[in-house]
Amino acid sequence: MGSKERKERDFESRRRLILATAKDLFVRKGFAGVTLDDIASGIEFSKGTVYNHFGSKEEIYATILLEHLEILLAELKEAMGTGRDMAERVWNSMKAYVRFYREHREHFKLLFFIDMVSNHVRIPDALLKEIRLRKLACLLELQNAIKEGVRTGKIRSGRTAARISFVMWGTINGIIHLAESRQVREDELDGLIAVAFDVVLAGLKAEPKLTLEG
Q1: What are the domain boundaries of the chain?
Q2: Domain 1-54's class?
Q3: Residue 182 and residue 198: Cα distance in Å, rounded?
Q4: Exposure of 152 by Cβ count < 10 A (0-12 exposed, 13-18 middle, 19+ buried)?
């Protein structure tokens, strides 16, 4: 291995170490409770080493978010591929989203961190764009299933798939927030998600067409 390759390997290794250390600190202390000095101390390098890889704490946080969005997108794609029809695919995606919340609970708030405009200042535009594209891709998985429902007559026309997906996205996140803020018990989460799915699906079902006889 040449010196250039070795330097590139070491650079990437330190970058991964910074992200892993920062992720652990954010989980234990929260975003506001962590400084770049804390991260540098955790990796046993100078703060300058951290700056060689990331321009700010917000950029580190956003990079971790992007990695989690990749995981979520992959799980949604898998869920959408297992259903027999539109309703089952949408239900599977909702279950996958709740499972993602449970398995990555400490990092779930990262999904909403980026939506706060004040956090954009110290995050590179290219990274912000990638995050938005991943979030859009997650919504598109849901939209595609809904479009199928309209095409096959399972969902009545007149409502755009984009609006329906935003309603579903907002509903499920609102229910998860209720559990996260302990306004409802954790063991009520699955039942509430099921009720929300039934209510939304009932409102979307295509009405039977009237026919004239005789």
Answers
A1: 1-54, 58-204
A2: mainly alpha
A3: 23
A4: exposed
pLDDT tens digits, 13-25:
999 999 999 999 9
Three-state helix/strand/coil letters over 2-30: CHHHHHHHHHHHHHHHHHHHHHHHHHHHC
101 close to 108: Cβ distance less than 8 angstroms? yes
8 A C-beta contact, residue 181 and residue 112: no
Q: How big is the chain, counted in residues? A: 214
> What is the DSSP secondary-structure string of 152-178?
TTSB-SSS-HHHHHHHHHHHHHHHHHH
Stated pTM of the model: 0.78
Q: Domain 58-204 is of which CATH architecture?
A: Orthogonal Bundle (1.10)
User: How would you classify residue 85: left for phi > 0, otherwise alpha for psi between -120 and 50, otherwise beta?
Assistant: beta
